[in-house]
Design a protein that fits this description.
Oligomer: single chain
Strand content: 5-15%
Number of strands: 3
Structural class: alpha+beta
Order of helices and strands: HEHHEE
Distance between the termini: 39 Å
Number of domains: 1
Shape: elongated
Length: 82
């Protein structure tokens, strides 16, 4: 049973490392943004949808926080990376 658990942990770590490697490769592709640029874009889209300035700023900050923690975020069909 312990061996199955250890194999499971190794598989999860391998998947996380592979995801991080793919994220790094995507960061160097055209059409990618930084997290800060993505946050600005989210804020602009929120204002265009009719949100007040403070609500739009909150959405932008939320996107930035999420993007920096996870290492990536999506704005429409664009991918933002840290």
């Amino acid at each position: 049973m312990r061996q199955v658990f250890n194999v499971g942990v190794v598989v999860v770590l391998a998947l996380l490392l592979a995801n991080r490697a793919v994220t790094r490769v995507q960061a160097h592709e055209g059409g990618s943004l930084t997290c800060a640029q993505g946050a600005t874009l989210v804020k602009a889209e929120a204002i265009a949808r009719g949100f007040a300035e403070i609500g739009a700023r909150s959405q932008g900050e939320n996107f930035l926080s999420s993007c920096l923690v996870s290492g990536q975020g999506r704005v429409g069909n664009l991918v933002a990376h840290d």
